[in-house]
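Sanity check

After download, print the first record. It should look like this:
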Amino acid sequence: MRRRKRHYQDHANHDRWLVSYADFVTLLFAFFVVLYASSQVDKRKVGHLALAIQVAFQQLGVFDTSNTKIPLSDSEAVPFTQVQVVENAQRTGDFRKFVQPMKGIVSPLAGAPLKGVEEDLSKALAPEIKKSVVSVTAVPEGIVVSLQEVGFYESGSATIRASSQGAMDRLAAVLEPLGESLRVEGHTDNVPIHNARFDSNWELSTARASDLIKLLILHYHFDASRLSAAGFAEYHPVAPNDTPENRARNRRVDIVVLNPVR
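Expected structure tokens:
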């Protein structure tokens, strides 16, 4: 006798949606975990970076000098609450290297005054300081030796006067043995210039800075790697260009002895 085949009725599984739902929830969980992990940063490193950028801008003269506390070691965290918010202000200082190239380490010597150098410069240039053709000023970036045009240059010329050689000899005698970097900056008043050599105050200020650097290297044997030059024309005055006396103060060449960095 032939056996009858049993026919089994297939029953629909109403719980299969749970598999897809579980997969979706797992993927969603993984997605948010990745987002959370991506949002977490090394607060210590970010704090150091923010502080380095802030101080660098301050030393460029874009912001006021900050009283932000610099960490004593790289292992010390720098919370953002300790990074002072800075405001725009007029340029009160000059350029200086503050963060070491590549390493990005903020120097603990930043802002340290060069008191001994300032005293030596003031003594060496006392005759010119008395005549008000030289000034020696301590600034957050270092020390600025300002050479007034009236004492060192003919109007519209970039060549140091021969009569100023004595002052330059004494100045070089103090600066040459130092290891600090020097930045030479040319400045003018706002009266336009146009002569056989210079078409603008930009060219005059830059030429004065460059020619002075050439003199320091060739005549006084300065290490060229210590020196840099910049021309600012009339755009960084020390006095309003509203009187002949003030315009004379703005026509100057500044030698900036930069604070050391490690």
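If your output differs, re-run the checksum step. Summary of this record's structure: The chain has a mean pLDDT of 77.
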